[in-house]
Amino acid sequence: MSILIYLIPLALFMGALGLQAFLWSLKSRQYDDLDGASCRILADDDDAP
Question: 3-state SS of the chain: helix, strand, coil percent to 5?
Fold first, then answer.
């Protein structure tokens, strides 16, 4: 049971770290153009001379 003294704060820290990473991705506008990203993968950009 004494291992919970270490695991609970570690789990809370990792959860806060994941939340911070998610909020950073929202703030840096990672999710703005979802349709453009799905169409770009289908585009054939072979610029062969």
Answer: 65, 0, 35
pTM, rounded to two decimals: 0.63
> Is residue 20 a contact partner of residue 13, using CB atoms and an 8 Å limit?
no
Name the residue with tokens 């950073």.
24
Q: Is 23 within a domain? A: yes
pLDDT tens readout for residues 25-45 = 999 988 888 787 778 778 776
For the chain, the domain total comes to 1
Amino acid at 9: P
Task: Decide: helix, strand or coil at residue 30.
Answer: coil
